[in-house]
Amino acid sequence: MSQKNFAGVAVYPVRIPRIGTTLVGVWLGRDITPDQHQKIFNINNTHDIPGHIGVRTDVSGTMVMYAGWVGNWKRARIVAAFLSRVVAEVTGAQSETRPLSDYRSVSRALAPTVL
């Protein structure tokens, strides 16, 4: 993986709640262009996925998030790899994949960290 293109971290929870929504995402330490934002958001229309992919950009970077039902940690890892691949195709940024303990830790990792 090229160091100059490494810009993100894909996170997914190891413990999945039995009911409700699971959050998986990719955090990029840089902004993306409006065109890139739209291309990522358009995945909701082109792929038959049971959840929703959203994109949020703020002063701390860009978050690409999937919110939907995920049955187990293996499926969550597959979703994280999919998001990482999409981000790489659209922006050229490579992401490292990391498991986190639960939904709350994933949510915190993807939350903006404005000081």
Explain the overall architecture.
It is globular, with a radius of gyration of 13 Å. It has one domain (19-110): Alpha-Beta Plaits. The protein has 4 helices and 5 strands. The chain is 34% helix and 32% strand. A 5-stranded mixed sheet has the order 3-4-2-1-5, sandwiched between helices. It has helices at residues 34-41, 43-46, 73-91, 103-110, and strands at 6-13, 22-28, 52-58, 61-68, 94-100. The protein has 115 residues and is an alpha+beta fold.
List keywords for this structure.
Alpha-Beta Plaits, 5-stranded mixed beta sheet, alpha+beta, 115 residues, 4 helices
Strand order of the largest sheet: 3-4-2-1-5
Low-pLDDT runs of 5+ residues are none
Alpha carbon gap, first and last residue = 31 Å
CATH topology, by name, is: Alpha-Beta Plaits
State the CATH class. Answer: Alpha Beta
Which oligomeric form is depicted? Answer: single chain
Looking at the structure, what is the overall shape?
A: globular
Kindly give the count of domains. 1
Largest sheet: 5 strands, mixed
Individual helix count: 4
Average of the residue pLDDT scores: 86
Helix content: 25-40%
The CATH architecture would be 2-Layer Sandwich
What is the N-to-C succession of helices and strands?
Answer: EEHHEEHEH
Query: Which structural category fits the helices and strands?
Result: alpha+beta
Q: DSSP strand (E) fraction?
A: 25-35%
Quantity of strands, as a count: 5
Query: What's the Cα radius of gyration?
Result: 13 Å
